[in-house]
Amino acid sequence: MSRLHRSLYQIEARYPDRIAIEPPWPVTHDDASILAPQLGEHGARSAILRRVPGTRAAWESRAPFEASDPPIWGEQP
Q: Domain residue spans in the chain?
């Protein structure tokens, strides 16, 4: 699972008269990517996924690799 999918997200939706956070609670990336296009049916002009700060382990931002990558040791061809 990539870093993208291990974080939680909220959707910033722009309506003609306001900007709203949809839904009001954090959701997974998969759920947010499904919900964002559906907001257009409810009047949203655009939507962007915003990662909720602090929803990823601290070591992940410092890791030089993706945690989902298979471990590799020794010389590689």
A: 3-54
